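S1.2 Input.
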Amino acid sequence: MGPKIIRKQRLYIAGIMGDGFKTAELWGEFDSKLQETELSKKTSDAGYEVRFDYDDKCDCFVGLAVTESSGAEGFELLELPSCEYAAFDVIVADGYDSENENMNKWLDENKDKYTHAQIDGMHYVIECYNEKFKEGIVEIWIPLDAK
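S1.3 Output.
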């Protein structure tokens, strides 16, 4: 099944950056730090994992959405531009990589309309842990640039 095309306004995420191959440890570090701050009272219910892949490396930023004015005391602030995304639902029990083939196929089939957007020359994807996560589904958003 194909993705939903969604439009998101500028997104600010307060969190931490680390090794994309150690996301469980990153979330643990973030959660520990979160307990020591007021940030948890200023955020939405969704968690975000932004993955940057380049040169066989993977950096990962984990955190919570904040408003620009709320600040991110004690955390890094990642700003993502207003963008269209191809949003895929991934069933966690099937594995986070279970939709990779479908995502790549969709990008290839739609290359005349879209390219995979970049930040600072790096491709990225967003894993959104919203209310669907309680049902075992994570949304993966691929940022798009229209041709």
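S1.4 Remarks. The mean pLDDT is 87.
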